[in-house]
Amino acid sequence: MAFPKGFLWGGATAANQLEGGYLAGGKGLSDADVCTGGSHTQSKRITPVLEADTFYPSHEAIDHYHRYQEDIALFAEMGFKVYRFSIAWTRIFPTGEETEPNEAGLQFYENLIDECLKYDIEPLVTISHYEMPYALTEKYNGWTDRRVIDLYVTYCQAIFTRFKGKVKRWLTFNEINCGAMPLGNLLSLGILNNGTTEFMHQIDQPQLRFQALHHQFIASAKAVQLGHEIDQDNQIGCMIAYMMSYPLTPNPADVLENQKVMQISNYLCGDVQVRGAYPSFAKRYFTENDIQIEKEPEDDAILAAGKVDFYTFSYYMTVCQTTDEAAKSGGNLMGGAKNPYLISSDWGWQIDPLGLRIALNEIYDRYQIPLMVVENGLGAYDKIKADGTIDDDYRIDYLKQHINAMHEAVLDGVDLIGYTPWGCIDLVSASTGEMAKRYGFIYVEKYDDGSGDFSRRRKKSFDWYKAVIASNGEKL
């Protein structure tokens, strides 16, 4: 049952969730750096002015900034073929508006990349992953201002040039389609709408949000063109938070509702980045929601010329869609209604391995370009036993089922080239800012109150995943 030869097994992280060292080496303040911790009972907050005696998880995270050699050695021990990580924009351009990149930031990432290459681990670099320079949020309200496009392209120029020959695969924006939903305001678009300090529940202005998303589309397309010009071997992809959903019932109204949700949640961004143009359904959606996208005359040509080379996505859960308001339920990042046929994680995310096979087939049938699953995993409460071991059989079971689903999709004819489970080492949760929600194969002694010595220890899943990689997916 082996996967194709050369299949890229690995893991995925994000700079703001694991690096720490939030002002080290001349780094500037990012949007993530002004977000407090949170939990099930206390919402993550945004504090434009840093507060004394308030815990900001990104400031230390898991201290990967000082421990990357140890961490990459552990990834190599598992047998990683690829490591997906992000570059913090503010390490390279602290405010986003400098004319010259910060050498200390470039050197840090060059050292990290060289450490990967030492172990024959291919770097897969996300250029922007939920950590816009906070100065750009303050000055421009993030991506709502078209001037940010050129600032992003300048950033791309610096890293494409510096890491030419060492990095071949790039992703322009993490989960860009979050910008099509209210949760994407500060998270992915850098938009801060005053009126609430709650991170995930800001005042939403769809006109601003979709205009900002358009600017990201243009920036991504320009980055694709620039990356190809600087190094013809560069492969530049998109990254979508694939929000798989089903009709709750066979009622045609539910089927139509699900189709509409899938179009805006998943296909809008994929179509623009892979096909190079807005899809036909966008026109009616924009009209009915009073959204007017302001374009420059050259924008359509830029999108057409900046199509991505491969498509990557995250997959964690599925939900159901219905027109019956009484059937809708909360407690889930994606909203919608709960599926009575599925069980849920500790965080209320419904576990659906078969949905991954369905998603892979749908995506590949639509776009016909290579795919990668670059985030997938189970956030859970991991407990250290008296003997120091961590038996996370629930995580092994989750991943095993999803790997089986991927293999079935490969047999279905899907061109799947890699798999990088999320949070291969425990890190800070993006949505809640907590450490208790652990995903990794490696446990990190760091806790929600900021305590912990950052020591690393292997979980049971560490050795399991090592065997999976060594057998190219045959030994599950």
Q: Could you characterize what this model shows?
A:
This protein starts with 7 loop residues before the first strand and ends in a 6-residue tail after the last helix. Helix 14 (393-411) links the parallel strand 9 and strand 10. The chain has helices at 15-18, 57-60, 64-78, 89-92, 103-118, 134-140, 147-162, 184-189, 206-230, 252-275, 280-288, 299-305, 353-367, 393-411, 460-470; strands at 8-12, 82-86, 122-126, 169-171, 235-241, 245-247, 310-314, 319-321, 371-375, 416-419, 442-444, 456-458. It has one domain: Alpha-Beta Barrel (TIM Barrel). With 476 residues, the chain is of the alpha/beta class. Helix 13 packs parallel to helix 14 (393-411). The strands form 3 sheets. It has an 8-stranded parallel beta barrel with strand order 1-2-3-4-5-7-9-10, surrounded by 5 helices. It has a two-stranded parallel ribbon with strand order 6-8. A two-stranded antiparallel ribbon has the order 11-12. The mean pLDDT is 95.
Q: Assess the beta-strand content as a share of residues.
A: 5-15%
Using the coordinates shown, work out and report the CATH topology.
Answer: TIM Barrel
Give the proportion of residues in helices.
25-40%
Number of spatially distinct domains: 1
Structural class: alpha/beta
Intertermini distance: 10 Å
Q: Enumerate the spans where pLDDT stays under 50 for 5 or more consecutive residues.
A: none
Largest sheet: 8 strands, parallel, barrel
CATH homologous superfamily label = Glycosidases
Q: Averaging pLDDT over every residue, what do you get? A: 95
Morphology: globular
Would you list the SSEs in sequence order as H and E?
A: EHHHEHHEHHEHHEEHHHEEHEHEEEH
CATH architecture call: Alpha-Beta Barrel
Radius of gyration: 21 Å
Question: Largest beta sheet: what is the strand line-up?
Answer: 1-2-3-4-5-7-9-10
CATH class: Alpha Beta
Separate helix tally: 15
Q: How many beta strands in the DSSP annotation?
A: 12
GO cellular component, one term: cytosol
Organism: Pseudolactococcus raffinolactis
Keywords: Glycosidase, Hydrolase
Protein name: Family 1 glycosylhydrolase
